[in-house]
Protein 1
Amino acid sequence: MGVFDPNGFTFNRNNPNRFISGFLNQNGVNSPYLTDDIYFDDNDVLRCSPDFDIENNLGQVNQLLCGYAALVQVYHEKMQVYKGDHAVLHKRSFNKLMQKRETNMGINLPKNMVNTFAGFFAGIPAKINYVPSGQSVNSPLDDKSKAINDWLSNALNSSHYSDVLFELSKKADIYGRSYLIAYLDDKKDIKFNDVSPEQCLMVYDNKLASNPKFAIYFNQVGSNFFGTLYTADSIYNFSSEDLSDVSKMKNLKQPNPLETIPVAELPENDERLGMFDDAISAIDKLDRAYSLKFNDVEYFSNALLFLKGFKKLDSEQRKTIKRWHILQADDNASDLAGIDAKFLEKPQNDTQQEHFMDRVTSQIYQNAQIINLSDPQLGATASGDALGKKLQPMVMLADSKARKMTNAFKQLLSIMMTKCDCLDGMKAEDVVNDIQIKFTPNIPHSLLDESNIVKNLNGIVSLQTLLSYLSNVENVPQEMEQITAEKKANTIDFGNANGSNDGDYPTNNDDGSDSNNGRDNNE
């Protein structure tokens, strides 16, 4: 069993296949093992045997971190690509004709794709509610359920959960995975935050259930590591000096106040592939095409001037031409027909270049299942139905991610519920099972189409169903209560207007009422 040597790993940022899968083979390392007992599976997930105990093998922590640090370079490169630091910017060629180095440019499609999908998926904050089994969201809650919902709302809002989930989703799009970590603040209140795989790793056993064995949150400064090792029972706050001595590590052991590994992973997919991992080569080619196009434009702005029939220009005349852009022939010349002045044109195929760039850009978006918001054809979409069909690939991708996000967030809630003081004998896992998490895609709606649907269905379905078709109605039960209250108020106002006595209509009874108290009308 060979162990991965991080010193033998050389990261090449110009390699068009800049993602983790297969990185070991790129460097001639045939073993997937990072330590004696921890290895990578085919989906870049760290595995170990079910009976492996990291607390009895603390000497492997330093070996694991050193091996994982090589992978951090790959993750870091993914973030650099997202930020616009592309490989083409590090390639500069010398133009012999122009006698200068050509300048390249990068088109940051990865950032556009990630931000578009993150805004589509998590732009509208998720709705998280505890609904006891057998009840609906609209059912009235008992005191215990209200207390749990209040605790849940306070815990989520104190951690700014909507922003955390947005960043969690974005990091998963970039890296292929991201993490949530729960912790106790200085006031012993439980909170959570999102973390990238550049600062966190998690090891699972190789059983079918894939149970987490331990996790490490770390920061690397130079060659030094600082961080925390989490197990279900203990935590170890370590530094690089502690990693080199097993006895020091053992002395750092502290009880885990959450009594479970406080880390939950959000995989972008089972393969842990980021949104633009398989498009890196196409993005590099597109950057190169735009760079060549840009340099062509610059070439024409410095085109060569061909002169025929003119006398040799002196230096002062050449300066005059550059400054004033005027070239005048001598009227006394004997052969004016033989005089000619023009710029030399470079052979080009502008139509083919534009067609290539448009096709590659379109293919990148199609493969990622992301809609290109800058596509002029999108603006020509008139009806909501046509727009819905264009958004269908993103809707399917969002549905898949919602399931992954729900699983990850419920893992986090299971951790947080260990500190909930209002369970009153209920099991935390039972409460988490009854927590509903609803993600709403940020889809533009046609209010005209929605109103037409409501008109056509009026009298066929219930009022609650009708209101659910209106996207601007956020809380249907609340809207129904408001409609009922308005109808009641209008009925009272109508009755007061028709039944009031202003002196023109005398009453029949001494008490001012119109009732005959059951007497016959002929009396």
Protein 2
Amino acid sequence: MIYDVVVVGGGIAGLMAAIEAKNDTNKVALLTKGNLFKSNSSLASGGINAVLDPKNRVEIQKHIDDTLKSSYDLGDRKTITYMCERAPFIIKKLEAYGVEFDKDDKFNIIQRSFGGGSSKRTCFIGDKTGSYITQALIKKARTVGIKFIVNNFIMNLTKLKNRVSGVVSLRRFDSSVVVYPAKVVVLAGGGYAGIYRGYSTNSQDYTGDMHAIALRAGLNLKDMEFVQFHPTGMSQTSYLVSEAARAEGGYLINSDGDRFVDELEKRDIVSRAISKQISDGKDVFIDLRHISLEKIEKKLPSLQRAALMQAGVDISKELLKIKPVAHYSMGGIEADMVKTTLDGLLVCGECASNGVHGANRLGGNSLLEGAVFGELAGKEALKISKKSEFLPIDYSVVAKDLKLVDYIFDKECSKNFNAMRVSLGDIMFKFAGIHRDEMGLLKAFDYLKYLRKEASRLHCISKERNNNVELISILELRNALEVSEAIVLSAIKRKESRGAHSREDFPLSLKKYSKSIILKEFQKGYFKLWYSDCKFLEKIRNKLRRI
């Protein structure tokens, strides 16, 4: 089947893009690696930022300023301004799609404080905001006629000269390699924080697939060193203890009973403060005992259930032990708003890096980013598809992917790919996590080289092609290792501390490094990195205007 627009990713960005790209006559498909309800968007708990009155220029400017401040001088003002100004209209659109935000007795949307924000601007639905938004968008997408193609693992893009022509996909149920030709492709498949397996709120299949695909297609990645560690994950399971818990008045205390940080500071600051307490030999807890049971049941019901089921803790009476966990990746595929330098390829959501977050994301801006730039990508996709023709598929790419799948099935293997994924998570957290230095990063890079060599020799133990979980896991591991090298190399190059990137051997932020790091894989396993500034971004924009 051919489609005018193929969207990859079933989170808020992908769903918004698919809805906006659809009209009465075209065909739009949304491809997902797993099922529709497994996205990080559906797990996002706390809320979505927006100034609700589009005429309130003072508050909108504060939202812009807070986002710029949180970016540590790496945010792009144009992109941030667009997002903040579009936010009120996005909330209205989501309400029209059936999202019912929590409201007061006068039916006004309630807003809570979030870390790094100077005003209450976070709209929410208890502590399950993302889940309710994605459910509403799935219903809307079905209503407008989006074709859902689930359980498809995207292997590569196909292109002719400098224009995308489709995607190559692996169907889970029979391990077949299939091609979906398209006039426009939108990548919205999420981030790479799942690489930190065992230390992440993300599902383990968020392994940077979109970024690996982009590298193989010759695109640049940007700001890959910036991985946000959420301050509060459950110590036992890494389950996300939403910022909503602190927004509703929760305290962070150590095992001495002392509060040691402003709970609503920016996430990088709170995460490092907690990490220091733990390294000093103290446990850290979130304390909600002073909050009424009625408020907990109304505002934090998911956390209440999860704490009881996963940790055996009644948060209305007991302390809940927490730790920082990898949560969000600010780096991604280089883009101007949603456009890339490959014609017909658009990117949005967490897999994109358009300067909206810079070195650190403001709490509450992730769902907003997905909705705003998903909407924009969909509008652009519709516009481009109307004036474009289908291009021939480069079957040499398809042949390589077929050969790779056959190779993975072909031979016997005694290596444990699951142990390798756990080792990858361990090494990335230890040496490329919250605290970094040159020696540790070099150790990580050497180990990644070793793992990449070992992963190239992995084969499926089971040769059954129907629903073979090993095959996808091996391909994910290959992608994760490619992206991990990009993270580590970028972290080595940035010889300073800035936002979510903390170098113990270079603790200061330096003005000369107020630039993004761009990375390109010019040959498999060989990367080129360089610093770029606003002038470089303007060159990209000028090029895109001529396309």
Protein 3
Amino acid sequence: MTNLREAAMTSKAWPFEEARRLLKRYDKAPPEKGHVLFETGYGPSGLPHMGTFGEVLRTTMIRRAFEVISDIPTRLICFSDDMDGMRKVPGNVPQQELLAESLQMPLTAVPDPFGTHESFGAHNNAMLRRFLDTFGFEYEFYSATDFYKTGQFDEVLLRACEKYDDIMKVMLKSLREERQQTYSIFLPIHPETGRVLYVPIKHVDAKEGTVTFDDEQGREWTLPVTGGQVKLQWKPDFGARWAALGVDFEMYGKDHSTNTPIYDRICEILGGKKPEHFTYELFLDDKGEKISKSKGNGLSIDEWLTYASTESLSYFMYQKPKTAKRLFFDVIPRAMDEYHQQLRAYPDQDVDKQAANPVWHIHEGHVPESKMVVPFSMLLNLASVSGAEDKGTLWGFIKRYAPEAGPETHPDLDAAAGYAVRYYNDFVKPEKTYRAPTELEREALTELREGLANWQGPADAEELQSLVFACGRERFDPLRDWFKALYEVLLGASQGPRFGGFIALYGIEETVALIDKGLAGELQAE
């Protein structure tokens, strides 16, 4: 009998593959620091988006997979680069003029345009933590501002002074010639204005641990690199953070992949061991453009959770992380249904297949039972034909179809009914377009109507599906044209549910009445 650890050591599920790669890092000896450190980064220049959430979720999945195959303790740090200067005003936040006055200020020194926190950076950090807490992540939150100002970064900053020339050589190779003339790995914080300065550094004193520069007015200043008076440019900061914390694993988007050798080399120059990496493909909006914190395009976490469960979002994130994902509202129903399909399959799978099942990774091995006796896509169609304004309407049909089900005993189905009503009213209803049937379709619909009107047995989904097939089999080639006609004439959509199951749920008499309205052109008129 294979146990989970044995299955995990050969599983092709990507979290276990990454966990095994990470374990090789310590095949000779365990880490001196006593744990394996996972890190995710967040730039709070805008509101958190799906990419940020996805990084933490996927990293957590690898962390839990690692804990199956190793007894080495683990930690996860979510690091916010909130000392970064605000380079542009995000387009999706209020009080644009207020923010424009704070350009180049550290994000933790920019006023909060929402008026709820001490700074814009603090507001965005709080939003990130709220999102992460909603999903029950176990993590430690680190603020770059605190990290710099409390001296936790001092040792690596002083080392960066000592290794300044070596780090500059790495950076200059990656820059255009005109950028090389003014570039420095250090960004001083102006003692008077508090702004992050992008100015040439005239002198770095490794012995004293200071930098000398001229500000925009030509005045010369000398500042210690410690105590939060100077920060590192973002690429050196990446590598320096790895060295300072002893990071073992970090994942990031494809747009960072060309910088990986830079991050790694700087980490090594500063005395650290480069971590293991995982590069994921980017998330795209409905137009195929990369989602952005400053634009606010694509689907937000709150929007997803308005129309579907947290688990369905986790399932969407699990799938093919190295493939670009179109992140828009139309991906939600499939994610909901596929997640529950995997839940239903899990109990009957052997341990090898369970280790490869996404729900193991979503629930960290504690997989619940699915109570979704009606698929989400079917609930959407039911909401459509019934014109449901609340989930109570759907429960009237569900109880007839599954008398044993109820909101208390089937909470996931109850929640899904509420999601379906909201999704239908916001996305399906505005796009519904009915059409009249062709003569051939009218003939088939009439036969289906008569078959249902004369139905004597129970509303069995499979037997009803056989009737639907029989009405179309001799008339349509390919047969899918028959089902397409059913959806377009009766449901006002180009695709829909398994129709026998829909009839069983909606009701035989109700479906007869629906066909009558479709044949009479009343659905088009409505």
